[in-house]
Protein backbone atom coordinates (compact mmCIF):
# COMPACT_ATOMS: atom_id res chain seq x y z
CA UNK A 1 0.00 0.00 0.00
CA UNK A 2 2.76 2.45 1.03
CA UNK A 3 4.89 1.67 -2.02
CA UNK A 4 1.88 2.12 -4.29
CA UNK A 5 1.19 5.56 -2.80
CA UNK A 6 4.80 6.63 -3.25
CA UNK A 7 4.72 5.50 -6.87
CA UNK A 8 1.49 7.44 -7.46
CA UNK A 9 2.93 10.60 -5.89
CA UNK A 10 6.07 10.27 -7.98
CA UNK A 11 3.95 9.99 -11.13
CA UNK A 12 2.07 13.16 -10.22
CA UNK A 13 5.14 15.08 -9.07
CA UNK A 14 7.16 14.36 -12.19
CA UNK A 15 4.86 16.26 -14.60
CA UNK A 16 4.59 19.11 -12.08
CA UNK A 17 8.37 19.35 -11.86
CA UNK A 18 8.62 19.28 -15.64
CA UNK A 19 5.96 21.99 -15.95
CA UNK A 20 7.83 24.19 -13.48
CA UNK A 21 11.09 23.75 -15.36
CA UNK A 22 9.39 24.38 -18.70
CA UNK A 23 7.81 27.57 -17.34
CA UNK A 24 11.18 28.91 -16.16
CA UNK A 25 12.86 28.07 -19.46
CA UNK A 26 10.00 29.65 -21.42
CA UNK A 27 10.22 32.82 -19.34
CA UNK A 28 13.98 32.97 -19.89
CA UNK A 29 13.58 32.53 -23.65
CA UNK A 30 10.82 35.15 -23.72
CA UNK A 31 13.06 37.63 -21.93
CA UNK A 32 15.91 36.89 -24.31
CA UNK A 33 13.68 37.40 -27.35
CA UNK A 34 12.95 41.01 -26.39
CA UNK A 35 16.50 41.81 -25.27
CA UNK A 36 19.25 43.58 -27.19
CA UNK A 37 22.92 43.90 -26.28
CA UNK A 38 24.31 47.42 -26.73
CA UNK A 39 28.08 47.80 -27.12
CA UNK A 40 28.60 51.54 -26.73
CA UNK A 41 31.49 53.75 -27.86
CA UNK A 42 34.29 51.20 -27.88
CA UNK A 43 35.95 53.15 -30.65
CA UNK A 44 39.45 54.32 -31.49
CA UNK A 45 40.42 57.17 -29.20
CA UNK A 46 37.90 56.19 -26.50
CA UNK A 47 37.59 52.45 -26.08
CA UNK A 48 41.31 51.87 -26.52
CA UNK A 49 42.41 54.14 -23.67
CA UNK A 50 44.20 52.56 -20.67
CA UNK A 51 41.24 53.06 -18.32
CA UNK A 52 38.98 51.14 -20.76
CA UNK A 53 41.24 48.11 -21.39
CA UNK A 54 39.62 45.75 -18.89
CA UNK A 55 36.11 46.91 -19.78
CA UNK A 56 36.78 46.20 -23.47
CA UNK A 57 37.90 42.67 -22.61
CA UNK A 58 34.78 42.05 -20.54
CA UNK A 59 32.59 43.57 -23.27
CA UNK A 60 34.13 41.11 -25.73
CA UNK A 61 33.15 38.24 -23.43
CA UNK A 62 29.61 39.63 -23.20
CA UNK A 63 29.46 39.99 -26.98
CA UNK A 64 30.48 36.38 -27.51
CA UNK A 65 27.86 35.14 -25.04
CA UNK A 66 25.15 37.41 -26.43
CA UNK A 67 25.75 36.18 -29.94
CA UNK A 68 25.69 32.56 -28.76
CA UNK A 69 22.32 33.24 -27.10
CA UNK A 70 20.99 34.74 -30.34
CA UNK A 71 20.58 38.27 -29.03
CA UNK A 72 20.49 41.18 -31.46
CA UNK A 73 23.56 43.39 -31.03
CA UNK A 74 23.88 47.11 -31.64
CA UNK A 75 27.13 49.08 -31.62
CA UNK A 76 27.41 52.85 -31.24
CA UNK A 77 30.22 55.23 -32.05
CA UNK A 78 30.67 58.98 -32.02
CA UNK A 79 30.83 60.63 -35.42
CA UNK A 80 30.53 64.32 -36.30
CA UNK A 81 29.98 66.17 -39.55
CA UNK A 82 32.93 67.44 -41.54
CA UNK A 83 34.18 70.60 -39.86
CA UNK A 84 32.19 69.76 -36.72
CA UNK A 85 29.24 71.74 -38.01
CA UNK A 86 26.99 69.82 -35.60
CA UNK A 87 28.83 71.11 -32.51
CA UNK A 88 27.83 74.52 -31.19
CA UNK A 89 30.48 76.60 -29.46
CA UNK A 90 28.09 76.89 -26.52
CA UNK A 91 28.31 73.14 -25.88
CA UNK A 92 30.94 73.08 -23.14
CA UNK A 93 31.53 69.33 -23.24
CA UNK A 94 31.85 69.00 -27.02
CA UNK A 95 33.40 72.35 -27.99
CA UNK A 96 36.78 71.03 -26.83
CA UNK A 97 36.47 68.14 -29.30
CA UNK A 98 35.82 70.69 -32.02
CA UNK A 99 38.65 73.08 -31.20
CA UNK A 100 41.20 70.27 -30.78
CA UNK A 101 39.92 68.16 -33.69
CA UNK A 102 39.81 65.12 -31.41
CA UNK A 103 37.39 62.95 -33.41
CA UNK A 104 37.53 63.78 -37.13
CA UNK A 105 34.90 61.93 -39.21
CA UNK A 106 37.41 59.60 -40.89
CA UNK A 107 38.71 58.51 -37.47
CA UNK A 108 35.34 57.22 -36.27
CA UNK A 109 36.13 53.50 -36.13
CA UNK A 110 35.39 50.72 -33.64
CA UNK A 111 38.33 49.04 -31.94
CA UNK A 112 39.51 45.79 -33.49
CA UNK A 113 38.37 43.52 -30.65
CA UNK A 114 34.75 44.72 -30.82
CA UNK A 115 33.72 44.62 -34.44
CA UNK A 116 30.15 44.07 -35.67
CA UNK A 117 29.02 40.95 -37.45
CA UNK A 118 27.56 41.18 -40.95
CA UNK A 119 23.96 41.59 -39.75
CA UNK A 120 24.65 43.69 -36.65
CA UNK A 121 23.76 47.36 -36.55
CA UNK A 122 26.16 50.25 -36.00
CA UNK A 123 24.66 53.64 -35.17
CA UNK A 124 26.57 56.91 -35.33
CA UNK A 125 25.79 59.48 -32.65
CA UNK A 126 26.75 63.09 -32.12
CA UNK A 127 26.27 63.49 -28.37
CA UNK A 128 26.73 61.36 -25.24
CA UNK A 129 23.48 59.42 -25.56
CA UNK A 130 23.39 56.38 -27.84
CA UNK A 131 19.98 57.55 -29.13
CA UNK A 132 21.24 60.99 -30.18
CA UNK A 133 21.22 61.87 -33.87
CA UNK A 134 20.14 58.47 -35.20
CA UNK A 135 17.24 56.00 -35.51
CA UNK A 136 18.25 53.65 -32.70
CA UNK A 137 14.94 53.94 -30.87
CA UNK A 138 12.97 53.15 -34.04
CA UNK A 139 15.20 50.16 -34.78
CA UNK A 140 14.75 48.73 -31.29
CA UNK A 141 10.98 49.27 -31.28
CA UNK A 142 10.59 47.67 -34.71
CA UNK A 143 12.36 44.58 -33.40
CA UNK A 144 10.13 44.41 -30.32
CA UNK A 145 13.03 45.16 -27.97
CA UNK A 146 12.02 46.04 -24.41
CA UNK A 147 15.16 45.20 -22.46
CA UNK A 148 18.58 46.74 -23.03
CA UNK A 149 21.83 45.21 -21.82
CA UNK A 150 24.55 47.83 -21.89
CA UNK A 151 28.34 47.81 -21.96
CA UNK A 152 30.35 50.90 -22.81
CA UNK A 153 32.69 53.76 -22.07
CA UNK A 154 32.57 56.09 -20.45
CA UNK A 155 30.27 55.30 -17.55
CA UNK A 156 29.60 58.99 -16.87
CA UNK A 157 29.11 59.67 -20.59
CA UNK A 158 27.32 57.28 -22.93
CA UNK A 159 26.17 54.87 -20.20
CA UNK A 160 24.69 57.54 -17.91
CA UNK A 161 23.08 59.47 -20.75
CA UNK A 162 21.64 56.37 -22.44
CA UNK A 163 20.43 55.02 -19.09
CA UNK A 164 18.53 58.25 -18.41
CA UNK A 165 16.77 58.38 -21.77
CA UNK A 166 16.06 54.64 -21.84
CA UNK A 167 14.43 54.88 -18.41
CA UNK A 168 12.20 57.70 -19.66
CA UNK A 169 11.32 55.55 -22.70
CA UNK A 170 10.25 52.68 -20.39
CA UNK A 171 12.97 50.22 -21.40
CA UNK A 172 14.07 47.77 -18.75
CA UNK A 173 17.84 47.67 -18.42
CA UNK A 174 20.79 45.62 -17.33
CA UNK A 175 24.13 47.37 -16.98
CA UNK A 176 27.27 45.23 -17.10
CA UNK A 177 29.40 46.88 -14.46
CA UNK A 178 32.79 45.42 -15.39
CA UNK A 179 32.17 46.01 -19.11
CA UNK A 180 31.93 49.74 -18.41
CA UNK A 181 34.66 52.12 -17.26
CA UNK A 182 35.29 55.77 -16.58
CA UNK A 183 38.46 57.88 -16.42
CA UNK A 184 37.40 58.65 -12.85
CA UNK A 185 37.06 55.27 -11.14
CA UNK A 186 35.31 56.71 -8.08
CA UNK A 187 32.58 58.17 -10.30
CA UNK A 188 32.12 54.81 -12.02
CA UNK A 189 31.65 53.14 -8.62
CA UNK A 190 29.24 55.83 -7.42
CA UNK A 191 27.02 55.43 -10.48
CA UNK A 192 27.04 51.64 -10.38
CA UNK A 193 26.32 51.53 -6.66
CA UNK A 194 23.93 54.38 -6.00
CA UNK A 195 22.33 55.63 -9.21
CA UNK A 196 21.93 52.90 -11.81
CA UNK A 197 20.20 50.40 -9.48
CA UNK A 198 17.27 52.82 -9.23
CA UNK A 199 16.11 51.88 -12.73
CA UNK A 200 18.39 49.04 -13.87
CA UNK A 201 19.82 45.73 -12.79
CA UNK A 202 23.57 45.98 -12.33
CA UNK A 203 25.48 42.74 -12.97
CA UNK A 204 28.99 41.66 -13.79
CA UNK A 205 29.47 40.03 -17.18
CA UNK A 206 29.85 36.59 -15.59
CA UNK A 207 26.62 37.03 -13.62
CA UNK A 208 24.77 38.08 -16.75
CA UNK A 209 26.15 35.18 -18.81
CA UNK A 210 25.02 32.76 -16.09
CA UNK A 211 21.48 34.15 -16.41
CA UNK A 212 21.25 33.60 -20.17
CA UNK A 213 19.08 30.73 -21.44
CA UNK A 214 21.06 27.91 -22.98
CA UNK A 215 20.35 26.96 -26.56
CA UNK A 216 18.48 23.69 -27.03
UniProtKB/TrEMBL annotation:
InterPro entries listed in its UniProt record: Isochorismatase-like_dom (IPR000868), Isochorismatase-like_hydrls (IPR050272), Isochorismatase-like_sf (IPR036380)
Record flagged with keyword DNA repair: no
Q: Which UniProt keywords apply?
A: Hydrolase, Signal
Give the superkingdom in one word. Answer: Bacteria
Q: Which residues form the signal peptide?
A: 1-19
Q: Which GO terms describe its molecular function?
A: hydrolase activity
- Isochorismatase-like domain residues are 35-207
For this protein, the record's Pfam families field holds: Isochorismatase (PF00857)
Q: Protein name, please? A: Cysteine hydrolase
Q: Which organism is it from?
A: Alloacidobacterium dinghuense
Amino acid sequence: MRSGLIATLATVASPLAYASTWKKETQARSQASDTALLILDFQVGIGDQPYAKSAAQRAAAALKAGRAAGLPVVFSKVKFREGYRDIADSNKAFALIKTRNLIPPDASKLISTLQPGHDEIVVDKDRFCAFSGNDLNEVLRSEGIKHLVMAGVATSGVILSTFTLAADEDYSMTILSDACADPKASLHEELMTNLFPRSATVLTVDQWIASLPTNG
